[in-house]
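Hey, can you fold this one?
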Amino acid sequence: MADSAYTSTRTVVPAFKQAPGQPLPPDKQKFNFKLSHNRVIVEHTIGMLKNRWQSMKLLSLEILKAEWDILKSYVPNFDSSKEEEEDSGVIDGEDLTLCEQLFTRFCQLL
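Sure. Predicted structure:
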């Protein structure tokens, strides 16, 4: 789960960007809304935890429960029987269908 500043990878599904002069399809608007809503909840939770335990303000690594729960839900559905190429981390034009598949699977988990 990431905001639209991040690049899509096999492990990161960011918010969808609107193409200039074109509206964002309703399903992607809904996805962006749910993503934003969940990110706000996570950020508020981190803020409350940091206020409760002041020592957490110094943490450089934060494991966010919402993302972790989504990942745990996704991993059992991953088809590991497919032989994978070496992963560059970036989804290019050839992997657009993979990006759409990840989007569909992610939306089913919400």
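The mean pLDDT is 70. Let me know if you want another pass with a different chain boundary.
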